[in-house]
Amino acid sequence: MVKCGYCDFNSFADTSQDERRLVMQAMVKELEARRCRPTTVFMGGGTPTHLEPDLLEDFVTAIQRLDLSLCEEWTSEANPESCTVEKLQILRRGGVTRISIGVQSWDAARLAFLDRPHGPEAAEIALERAKELGFDVSLDLIFGIPGQSLEEWQVELNRAISLSPQHLSCYQLTFEQGTKLEAARSRGLVQPASDEVLRDMLIWTRDRLQEAGYPAYEISNFARPGHECSHNIGYWRGQDYVGIGPGAASHYQGHRSTNLRPLAAYVDAVANSNCATFEAEVLSPEQRAREQVWLGLRMRAGVDLESTRLRTGFDVVERLLPLAADRWMRHGHLELSGPRLSIPEASVAWTDEIAATFLGHSV
Amino acid sequence: MIDKIRNFCIIAHIDHGKSTLADRLMELTGTVTAREMHAQLLDDMDLERERGITIKAKAVAMTYRAKDGQDYNLNLIDTPGHVDFSYEVEKSLQACEGALLLVDAAQGVEAQTVANAHLAEAAKLEIIGVMNKVDLPTARPDAIAMEIENTVCIPAEEILHCSAKSGFGVVDLLEAIVARIPAPRGNVNKPLQGLIFDSYFDDYRGVIIYCRIVNGVLKKRQRIFMPGTETAYEVIEVGVMTPRMSPRDSLSAGQVGYIVANIKRLEDVVIGDTILDEKGERAPALPGFAMPKPMVFCGLFPTSAGDFEDLRKALDKLKLNDSSFSYEPETSDALGFGFRCGFLGLLHMNIVQERLEREDDMDLVQTAPTVVYQVRTRDNTLKEIRSPSELPDGSTILELLEPIVKLSILVPTNAIGAVMKLGTERRGRYLTTDIVGNDRQMIVFEMPLSEIIFDFHDKLKSATRGYGTMDYEFIEYRVAPLVPLRILVNGAEVDALCTIVHRDDAERRGRAVIQKLRKEIPRHMFQIPLQAAIYGKIVARENISAMAKNVTAKCYGGDITRKRKLLEKQKAGKKRMKMVGNVEIPQKAFLAVLGSDE
Questions:
Q1: How far B540 CA lies from chain A's nearest CA (Å)?
Q2: Euclidean distance between CA atoms B460 and B454, whole angstroms
Q3: Alpha-carbon dihedral of residues B455, B456, B460, B462, nearest 10 degrees?
């Protein structure tokens, strides 16, 4: 197994089967200790289908032991090359409802650039298998790969649309700290696409998918109505979540924490204390409200300022809106409709610029 | 008693070892033990130590038993080394009978050293040539001795050699001070006359005056009168610095010491003023008193409007210890409320700004420095202009005048071409060239001061690979074809970016400013037109194109904290920007008007 050059997730690449077994056992233990009653489950941020079938099955079984009476969505990420019928069946039997396949590209050269070990066909095969087993299917694609033109991206996205998944995530390639790709960029070996090209790709993607029946519901996420990923929406709505595993992040009512990231340290910590929290911060009501506005503005539907006030006790409308209004609303970059604040489609490419004004301690 | 006093100062270029020599003199006379010696005692402000310059003069009293077996009272008066402080240098020199002209045996004579040596000559001081750092492997004592002989007319054979660092030659130097520098002339029986040559503010004791008693005696409890400010005080304490304050019952003619007189504000004491006896027979004031005049002005504005009062307090505090610095409230359309501040020169300005940022933690926007222009209007009145916004309506202007200085530049012979070119480009009028040594010459120009205060010193350094040094003195105001250069950002004039420039240079300067602004102002969500205009005519324009996008592709549970912190950090970085209309202009952009060549 090799880690992809653009990926900054925690990874099992370069681990032995024994090490993987230890980590999975620790995750089961952490899961049991956290006693959650989830409304959604998401296995990802790393690729579960890379696990050996027995490890995968053990973990799915551990999740099944939770109280899943309120659970309405259970997603697993999958990579095309590891998406075997056997593993998909394990997931299906276990109760997984949704598969998110990391296609990334349909072009062999671009897949090679991204260090993806699979060819374009593997993704289509994985998609067919998942559909046959009755999963809701989402495809992940990456645009803005160095050298890729708008037209080339259009071909790629159209191919994904033609396969009729229920959901699509289209991400602009980013150069994350600590990745091989970023190292190559900083040495001048890789030239990122221009902001203008990236913006054109983003805008075309949103228009095209709207027309194809997949309206955007977030910056990079598109779905047939009713097939949006509830789990991810929770992140942008400021809801609580429990993260299990090395480097996993959790949020509970303004308390944000992150687990130890090195695998061995994580395993030890769980063995000793059932808990592997390594960093935690408690947000003040104001910080929490600011964060929720910033995150909520990623969504097409925007953020409900009244429920933010009720949840955090901080009144965004009174405290932050006047300045934001002066700066953005009068230019049409922000819209307020009832309690709901959102960024109009025409200004989506500037989301960070607009949303970041709500961060920090003064607008 | 008076015949055992020697009052002297050290004239040296930055880094030529003045402070080290002072330390060594104090150590060898037993004034301070080696153990007490906290390196370079005389420079007590961080900033001075870092920049290797002494800003405020001080005096140290030492007792030296000479080879003739007699004890001598040596008073070392420390002088500021920089051209910006030449008025203060002059007053320090007046308190002395002799000067050590200290020259680095490797670096040689510098323009500033020559200028200060001429001041010392004018003050009729006995000048002792001293070559320092003779133990350096790169020392060239013979060549440097020739330079000293050529520039300040001290015969090479009379120059003392020493190493302040190792102490070599310092005893000989002490002997020379005793033997060659004349004792002060003064009469203890005459009415009191004391020269104020420096002062500073102490938080607990108020103003501390440094004074040279010229005639008479100054006693504790005596009432004194200062004609410059027309104020009278009772002397609480007199004493000498050893280098700590050591009280004495009195100071008499020829002596140098300090006075504490319950004076609350530094403005109440003026350097160069005379101390007289208020009650007894009152002597005339000493000659040559003048207020140092600020030559360079710039605006200082807080980045956030809420800090205005804090800035005022910080400036008040600064003024306590720096009477040559001036400020008055100013309002800019672009920058809001701030202050127009006057400085003796560019270095003085930089020091003040750094001190504000360092000691008071202020985020400031500084506008480009400008000299004081004069405008003659059609009704034939002459008015001083410290900021382009003070210019009257164009139709009422008869003529504009700018300050002209005599600029002396000391350069290696091989850099003469580059320096002549630089001087000519900056509207310099070449006057003379003097041979200084085998490989160095002194070039003298007449030049508008405005051409020097921007980046002239940097340009000189790069044209001479760091070897060129300069000094200037004010000559007069002259009429020049000057025009206001107005800068418009997004269609609106930004007063803080406007300057007064020479007509022939206006277009080039306008273009340069606009190009620099294009680099400094970040992209916004809209296109920003930049224009430079002279009397309504656009002479340069550029556009900052709109930001294409700024959006994070992925932000899930594990990314939230990290991405939020990243954006918060970027936002904090924008703090040093000033919102002008709907454009955020970074602090650096306000200095864009300085860069003229890029």
A1: 27
A2: 12
A3: 20
Q: Judge whether A95 and A66 are in contact, CB under 8 Å.
A: no
Give the residues across from B219 on adjacent strands: B250
Q: Tell me the C-alpha distance between B175 and B171, whole Å.
A: 6
Q: Please, which residues have CB within 8 angstroms of residue A213's CB and are 6 or more apart in sequence?
A: A224
- Provide φ and ψ at A189, rounded to 5°: -80, -20
d(CA A123, CA B145): 85
Asked if B572's CB is within 8 angstroms of A199's CB, the reply is no
Q: What is the pTM of this model?
A: 0.67
List Cα–Cα distances, B545 to A295, B318, B523, in angstroms.
Answer: 28, 42, 7
Query: Nearest chain A Cα to B568, which residue?
Result: A360
**How many whole angstroms separate alpha carbon A100 and alpha carbon B569?**
33
Tens-digit pLDDT profile for residues B479-536: 999 999 999 999 988 988 888 989 988 898 899 889 989 998 999 999 999 999 988 8
B289 class by beta-carbon count within 10 Å (0-12 exposed, 13-18 middle, 19+ buried): middle
Least Cα separation, residue A350 to chain B (angstroms): 5
Q: B196: Cβ–Cβ under 8 A, 6 or more apart, which residues? A: B91, B209, B210, B211, B226, B269, B270, B271, B272, B273, B274, B275
**How far apart are the CA of B554 and the nearest CA of chain A, in angstroms?**
7
Q: Note the ipTM here.
A: 0.92
Query: Does A360 contact chain B (CB < 8 Å)?
Result: yes
* Cα–Cα distance measured from residue B440 to residue B576, given in angstroms and rounded to the nearest whole number: 44
DSSP secondary structure letters along B210-269: EEEEEESEEETT-EEEETTTTEEEE--EEEEESSSEEEESEEETT-EEEEE-----GGGS
Give the one of A249, A258, A348 whose C-beta lies nearest to B551's C-beta: A348
**Cβ contacts of A250 on chain B, cutoff 8 Å:** 557
Please report the beta strands in chain A, taking only residues with DSSP state E, as ranges in sequence order. Answer: 40-43, 73-78, 98-104, 136-143, 167-172, 221-223, 249-252, 255-259, 277-282, 303-304, 335-337, 340-342
Q: What H or E segment, with its residue span, contains residue B297?
A: strand B296-302
Residue A254 corresponds to which tokens in the numbers above?
């303004």
Q: Are A325 and A255 in contact (CB under 8 A)?
A: no
> What tens digit of pLDDT does each residue of B116-145 get?
888 888 889 999 999 999 999 999 999 999
SS3 readout for B497-559: HCEEEEHHHHHHHHHHHHHHHHHHCCCCCCCEEEEEEECCEEEEEEEECCCCCCCCCCCCCCC
Across the interface, of B549, B564, B568, the residue whose CB is closest to A349 is B549
Q: Residue B46 pLDDT more than 60?
A: no
DSSP A3: -
- Answer yes or no: are the C-beta atoms of A358 and A290 closer than 8 Å: yes
Q: Which residues pair with B6 in a beta bridge?
A: B74
- Those residues with Cβ within 8 angstroms of residue B49's Cβ, 6 or more apart along the chain or in another chain: B40, B43
Two tokens, residue A185:
């960029």
Hey, how many other C-beta atoms are within 10 angstroms of the C-beta on A211?
Answer: 10
CA–CA separation, B240 and B211 (whole Å): 10
In terms of Cβ atoms closer than 10 Å to its own Cβ (0-12, 13-18, 19+), residue B51 is: middle
Chain B closest-CA separation from residue A235 CA (Å):
6
- Kindly give, in sequence order, each residue whose CB lies less than 8 Å from that of residue B530, ignoring residues fewer than 6 positions away: B487, B488, B489, B514, B517, B518, B521, B541, B542, B543, B544
- In the stretch 30-59 of chain B, residues with CB closer than 8 A to chain A read none
Edge-to-edge strand order for the sheet containing B98-104? Answer: B59-65, B71-77, B5-12, B98-104, B126-132, B160-161
Identify whether B481 is preceded by a cis peptide bond (ω within 30 of 0).
no
Residue A92 three-state SS:
helix
